[in-house]
Amino acid sequence: MTTRQMDALVEGHYRAEENGDLDAIVEGFAPGAEHDVAGRPGEPLHGAEQIEAFYRDLLSELRIERFEPVRRWYGDDHVVDESSLHATAVGHPFGFDGRGRPVQTRFLHIFDFEGGLISRESAWIDLGAIQQQLA
């Protein structure tokens, strides 16, 4: 894949999260794709149904406003994206009481691609920063 194609998939994924568009989020993933968030209890998720359920729950707790790019590193079929997440904690994201407060934290995503879609997403979030902001 070209870096332009990878960027389009990552940016499309982020826009879908910002818009709360579950259909667009799921459409960006290959059938049987894997989704993992470091520190989330349980095994990685697999397939559209599990991925959609994860994002439905997340977006009901955290209104994502934007991802501010920091840097990206590219491989032949993967990209590592470092971003700053800007959001509003409307529920209890990651177990913290949001009360409609804004949060900002660093986020590291690793996206693997296959067949022009995301075949695996691994997300690493600075939960300590969120905890400090919502304490």
Give structural attributes:
alpha+beta, 6 strands, 34% helix, 135 residues, globular
Query: What general form does the structure show?
Result: globular
Number of strands: 6
Unreliable spans are none
Helix/strand order: HHEEHEEEEH
State the helicity in percent bands. 25-40%
Strand order across the biggest sheet?
2-1-6-5-4-3
- The total of helices stands at 4
Termini separation (Å)?
43 Å
Strand count, sense and barrel status of the largest sheet are: 6 strands, mixed
Share of β-strand residues: 35-45%
Overall mean pLDDT stands at 96
Gyration radius, in Å: 14 Å
Q: Report the structural category.
A: alpha+beta
If you had to describe this structure to a student in words, what would you say it looks like?
The model has no long low-confidence stretch (mean pLDDT 96). The chain starts with a helix and ends with a helix. The protein has a 6-stranded mixed β-sheet with strand order 2-1-6-5-4-3, sandwiched between helices. The protein is 34% helix and 44% strand. The chain is an alpha+beta fold.
Describe the SSE topology:
Elements: H1 3-19, H2 22-27, E1 29-37, E2 45-46, H3 47-61, E3 62-74, E4 78-89, E5 101-114, E6 117-125, H4 127-134
Parallel strand pairs: 1-6
Antiparallel strand pairs: 1-2, 3-4, 4-5, 5-6
At a glance:
By secondary structure, the chain is of the alpha+beta class.
